[in-house]
Amino acid sequence: MSIKPRILMVMGTRPEIIKMAPIYYELRQRGIDPLLLHTGQHNELAMPQYEFFDIKPDYIVDLQRNHILYPEKPYNPGHDLSTLSGELLNKISELIVSASPSTVLVHGDTSSGLMGALAAFYHQVPIAHVEAGLRSHNEYNPFPEEMNRVMMARLARWHFAPTQRAQKNLLAEGIAKEKIHVVGNTIIEATRLGIERLPKYLQAAQNSEYQFLKDIIGQHEQKKIVMVTMHRRENQASNVMQITSAIKELLEKYEDMLVVWPIHPNPKIRAAIHNVIGDSADNTISRLHLLKPLSYPLFLWVMQHAWLVLTDSGGIQEESVALHIPVLILRDTTERPEVVEAGIGILAGTEKGSILHHVASFYRNPSKRESWRQVENPFGNGTAAKCICEILLAGSGSNENLPKTIAGS
Ligand code: UDP
Q1: Which of 126, 260, 384, 398: CA 20 to 30 A from 229?
Q2: Ligand 1 center to 313 CA (angstroms)
Q3: What is the reported pTM?
Q4: Whose CA is nearest to atom 17 of ligand 1?
Q5: CA-to-CA distance for 199 and 119, rounded, in angstroms?
Q6: What is residue 69's predicted lDDT score, i.e. its pLDDT?
């Protein structure tokens, strides 16, 4: 009788939950009950996503660190990341000892992912890295994500790369070819799951938030809905002011524009946005909807009806491609050049003048936007989760490369 692998999935941020959900389902369909550790890196943002996907973590880290709890202290990202990482490493390590997984599955580039991988390495448990090989080639942008993923690549045994380019990046860093599998990105399955479940979700969600969004979406044929999000550390200083100021000017200039902006809970971002829009005219303000973060289905619902997306988010760029909505990337570097090469995204930067210029070009040339919507998705055909499970389950009995004490031979 073959022994079932004990797969521990470590996740804690909104995008990890969304992109790992399809793998969780695929494993369960194959009779494997993965163990799920929620690290608590995001809480407010994470819980609605678990609920929507009907996934219950088996373990939850009760993180003590949270800079929002200490608003009087000056913001110090270095210190904050050290505290977070130290706590995560301790707690994930403790769990690995008690749960004894045979494989640890981590995602992307978060502190949860890196500390999950490091804890697994310390206990000599093989690591599978989902969404491996993305690189901006700039160690401080995005920070700390670029170096998180570089370090995760040193530790992983399975590298699940979404694209050929990601594979190339890993090969250039000396990762052995046989350890890399180009499988596409699980965001495609997540988006599909989100859209499929949307009608039932909307039927159940007859609350004020739903009604509010329904009214906005109802205007999408007369108005141009622009969806905005921003959360990266690099954008939290003066960039947020530049971007907000650009949004304000766009609303003043284009009377048929309507902006939906779910704001990240970071108090610095909120304060900066309110600072800039404080003195705007009523007509502008009435077309600027600053919202709380939305649950995944509601977010997708609005996005489906958007004319344009402005974001610094990685996952939202990928979803823009999946939903065929052109996207302006509010960053100076990208680890997803595929979005730009596919012809559906522009690396617009964070300067007001550049954002205004790019939006104006869509107004001037509506056919350009239509042609953008026809592009092929560079992130695969929606089978990434299936491939990952097949590869993992085929290889999980193998002890190659583990020290003898662990391999038990
Ligand atoms: N998202 C969401 N509600 C929101 C904003 C974003 O559900 O109000 C989802 C979005 O659809 C995407 C993910 O969150 O799947 C992206 O997360 P985030 O931008 O925080 O991180 P990144 O992808 O940049 O790592």
Answers
A1: 384
A2: 7
A3: 0.92
A4: 15
A5: 40
A6: 43
